[in-house]
Amino acid sequence: MTLSAYVSFTPSLGLGLVLLVFVVHHISIIIYRLFFSPLAKIPGPWLTRISNVPEANALKKNQRTQWVTSLFSQTPGAVAVRTGPTSVSFNHPDAVKAIYGHGNAGEGFGKSSWYDAFSTTGESLFSTRSKKRHAMKRRMVAHSFSTQSLLSFEPFIDQTLETFVAKMDHFADTAEPFDIYFWFELFTMDLMGELALGKSFGVLEAGKPARYSTLVEQSQRFANHSGLLPFGKHNVQVMSWIPIPSIQKLYKARLEYLDYAKVALEKRFQEHRKHNLTSGNPRQDIMQRFIEARDLETGRQMGFDELRAETSSLMVAGASTGSVTMNWMIYYLCKNSDIQSRILTELEAMFPDNLAGEEPLSFTTLNKLSLLEHVELECLRLHPPIGYAMPRDTPPQGAIIAGFYIPAGVAVGVPAATIGRNDAVFTCPNEWNPDRWSGKFDDLSAMKNCFLGFGYGSRQCIGRNAATTFIIKTIATLLLRYEIRLEDPDLILATKEFTILKPDRRFNVILHHRDVSPP
């Protein structure tokens, strides 16, 4: 209860007495949280029982995921840890189903107020907290990510990939070491520009990032900070008032980012009205599907502000996560030449007339290459783009989660980076081994239950298949066309957290054109 509330409820009391009651009330809350709350028995730093400061400090240092993981390591075998006064993270398979599951599992676990900070000009599929509105939105756009739609998007992927490969050819011709992650970021930014806004940003041709990509990152960081505040939908406004230069810089980036998205989307609408294809038909990209989408029950279409919010989510989900996943795939394939050789053998058998990767590789054929998809899954297990827990609020009656009673209104979740290395589920959990996804020596069902690289349950990333399509096509093209090796064969990468988990340092690779001439 706030001080102003006390004043309004106790008009006959003197101000001094009101202040005393206010202080005693809050001291009582602190004592309750420290010693008597049902959460008091859950391990974690004592300060997390009364304050979000430790988590906010970890976020500021780009170490939020590492901080949560360290809390589990400090209490070996811990199923749950306290991350804040009303927030708990779990590391147990039962918690995944209980919190995020379909049907009765996860019933009543609504998205926490943290998501409000990610609602920009309106609720997106990602940020909406209403299960009803989420279900409606998902119905509206599900067709946008159907198999038929993915096939219609493939020409845009191939077009952008052609530009990317031209740049890679230059590095192969010169054998010059270069930062491939940097170029993955440019590739995914141009690709999502094509798919979400109808036009690439031209960053591949320019060889340098657009300001938009920086704004995306900074805007997401601002939202993450805002989400830790206790004011719900007012978090963003309150955060914007904080007179700290670093916070003000992030807030200004958020405003510029939203304005950029508005201008880009307005231009996309103008092209939509002109039917900018020679056939006279609208361009069939993701945004066109969103523009045309209708709720089958009400006939409602998304308005401009809602489309703008969805555009912002698409750019983050597609560009940022796709580039970092491809980066880890190349890193681990360079470290594991035997896996790379096995994939290459399968690719050569699939495309005997295209051994140099000179023609676009059909995803309809590539999706039969299970080993490469297992490489993607294994990289996402070890290095999920979002490593911390996606929070859900416990229902009014509270809930039993992995043996713990959690009262109502507590933000609970399972960090993807922690559960992905749970040694009760994954044999040698810190070892990169894509063959584990074949189910030969681990329980495949249990692993899938604890794999949160794309989320889980009804809120699982709706663009998962689209992301896998362009990731698999890109990595397969690189493997078929080039010999790839690390400039430093002894390189060991760790992670550093921004909005997403990224490598802790830049690194170079060296490309050579593969010799595909007959012996």
Automatic annotation (TrEMBL):
The chain crosses the membrane at residues 12-35. SUPFAM superfamilies: Cytochrome P450. Its cofactor is heme. It comes from the Eukaryota. Keywords: Heme, Iron, Membrane, Metal-binding, Monooxygenase, Oxidoreductase, Transmembrane, Transmembrane helix. GO terms for molecular function: heme binding; iron ion binding; monooxygenase activity; oxidoreductase activity, acting on paired donors, with incorporation or reduction of molecular oxygen. The keyword Heme applies. Heme binds at C461. The keyword Zinc-finger does not apply. Belongs to the cytochrome P450 family. This is Cytochrome P450 monooxygenase.
